[in-house]
Amino acid sequence: MNILEMAKTAGNVLPETYKVMTKEEMERRVRKIKQQLGSRLYIPGHHYQREEVIQFSDVTGDSLQLAQLSAQNREAEYIVFCGVHFMAETADILTTEGQTVILPDMRAGCSMADMADIDQTERAWTKLQSMFGDTILPLTYVNSTAAIKAFVGKNGGATVTSSNAQGMVSWALSQKERILFLPDQHLGRNTAYDLGIPLKQMAVWDPHNDELIYEGELEDLKVLLWKGHCSVHENFTTANIETLRAEQPEMNIIVHPECRREVVALSDYNGSTSYIINMIEKAKSGSSWAIGTEMNLVKRLIANNPDKNIISLNPNMCPCLTMNRIDLPHLLWALESIAEGTVINPIKVEKKIADNAILALNRMLERV
Ligand code: 13P
Ligand code: SF4
């Protein structure tokens, strides 16, 4: 479901009472419900969530850790997922029938996940099969809809996250001659490049024109990249790096691999959300860091590491707007709806889709 479709089904809009309640009152009520529900309730929170929400999460993690934790938790009846829609879908697929996954605000989508819809993907697959025959394995970043994960699962492929992308791409290329990597061209390109695959062996599939864009020889292509991107990480530019190198040469530059290839190439380090957190936490006291990732996380790293000099690589960076939809009023609303027995915003992936999507997820989970 894309963001527009979600907004349409989201007949549920935050009741006025939550808009006028004080922060202290909301926090008091969240604490009370958490205490009342105990282990019947589980609140996973992605690192990009706001502080006002993260303070109440039972676990905080990147997308891989949250998928693993959802697969392990068999105790909670209600999983209130503080993250975006595709993460809640993944949690629903990996949990049992009796567990209900709730997304506090249905407008918390992901623009990258919406860049590959299932019709476009089926069309691309038909065309690519006619060009390359049965030589392609599909891989999808978990930042994709359940329907895309199901497509990938049905065709023998797997999901990947930014923290296991290298291992998963290597595995896929040991199975077939080439891969189709959905929907983030940058993660796909950066990962393949780090594995030693030259750029001329990579092509971009443009889903709007149903066209493969490449420069080298068709038969040499190994990595077919879907033309999608993260609208947050694309805001880090080579100009940001050049300015910083000129003005503050002592800065270590670390970026997420959802950034463009040129940005990753000019940075000192690149890696997943967990990689960035570990690097900063282990860094020497007094060291200086410019970080190219989502702003809620950068702000948290600044607050938690007062002995280091940390800034955002882009001084005008904003948080991920869809991650930010999950705020304290929506969290409280979701929790009170459970306490009242009128659950709002449950995420339920259709069985036919879930049965195929889990194949793709399990192929990843059994390799990490
Ligand atoms: P990771 O948590 O895998 O680093 O993904 C980053 C992201 O963009 C989540 O939406
Ligand atoms: Fe999607 Fe990018 Fe936001 Fe992650 S940071 S949820 S990939 S738009």
From TrEMBL:
Keyword field: 4Fe-4S, Cytoplasm, Iron, Iron-sulfur, Metal-binding, Pyridine nucleotide biosynthesis, Transferase
Cofactor note text: Binds 1 [4Fe-4S] cluster per subunit.
GO terms for cellular component: cytosol
Residues holding iminosuccinate: H46, S63, Y141, V142, N143, S162, H256, P257, E258, T273
Compartmental location: Cytoplasm
Chain ranges passing through the membrane: none
One term of GO molecular function: quinolinate synthetase A activity
Keyword Transferase: yes
EC number: 2.5.1.72
GO biological process: 'de novo' NAD+ biosynthetic process from L-aspartate
Binding site for [4Fe-4S] cluster: C110, C230, C320
UniProt keyword Transferase present: yes
Necessary cofactors: [4Fe-4S] cluster
Primary enzyme class: transferase
Pathway(s) the chain acts in: Cofactor biosynthesis; NAD(+) biosynthesis; quinolinate from iminoaspartate: step 1/1
InterPro entries: NadA (IPR003473), NadA_sf (IPR036094), Quinolinate_synth_A_type3 (IPR023515)
Catalytic activity: iminosuccinate + dihydroxyacetone phosphate = quinolinate + phosphate + 2 H2O + H(+)
HAMAP family, sorted: NadA_type3 (MF_00569)
Function: Catalyzes the condensation of iminoaspartate with dihydroxyacetone phosphate to form quinolinate.
Family designation: Belongs to the quinolinate synthase family. Type 3 subfamily.
Protein name: Quinolinate synthase
Species for this entry: Peribacillus butanolivorans
Gene: nadA
